[in-house]
Every structure is written in C-alpha cells, then in structure tokens.
Amino acid sequence: MRCIGLHGCVHFIPPIAIRIEKDEGNYILYWKMTNGVGGYEPGDLVLSKMRKIDESIWNEFIALLNLAGFWDMPTNEKGLLGLDGSQWILEGKISKNYHVVDRWTPSSKSSFYKCCDFLLQQTDLSISGNNKY
Question: What fold, for 2-126?
C-alpha cells in the first residue's frame, strides 16, 4: 500500500488532514477537519469524508510529489518559523519506507506547495487563496 498524507495548520483556521492512498488498484482520498484553531488547541473532529478517485488523479499527484523531490527533501528547514503563517506537513509511506517533510508557510511558487495544494483541491474544503499561506 502507498499512502501519502498532508496535515495543515494555519493560524486561526481549523486544522485539516488529507490522505491519499493506493491499495490493490483502488485509489481513495480522505480528509478531516477539527473545530480547533491552528496554532492553538486542535479541537474536536467535525468533518470526516472520503471518496474514490481515478488513477489519473493519483498519477498526477505522484508526478507532483516527484517534481518536488519529496523523498529527498530534508524533514525540516532550520530557522524558518514565525508568529503568523501556516505549518504544512506531508508524510509518505511506501512499503517500509517512511518520510516526512514539515514546512512553515511554504512559497506558493514552490513544488512542495503545489503538491500539497493539489491534495487540497481534490477535497470539497473551501479555503480561499488568501488563507493558504
């Protein structure tokens, strides 16, 4: 099974988690949201959804993941935290291989951001561009 997950925490926006997985030819997207406030308490689960997706969506996501160089990215960037912004955490697991990348307010021009934003776009979550920072 291949599983990739995005965990996002934007100050003043409820925390969300998105997972996309492939298991024996099935492709499924899951997303969850709490009623907490990013940067503070996570709150309680208020939304939990899933849907089957086409192989083409999986393939596009994997292409974006590879373009970002996800499996070779360092887990953290030193010295990049702030008071206002967002934390984007992308985790991946293929067989026994696991990797996580944690970024504070990634640039919307970065391949990492585009990969994560693609997952957001596959959900029905309504997060405006101004709140994706």
Answer: Mago nashi protein (3.30.1560)
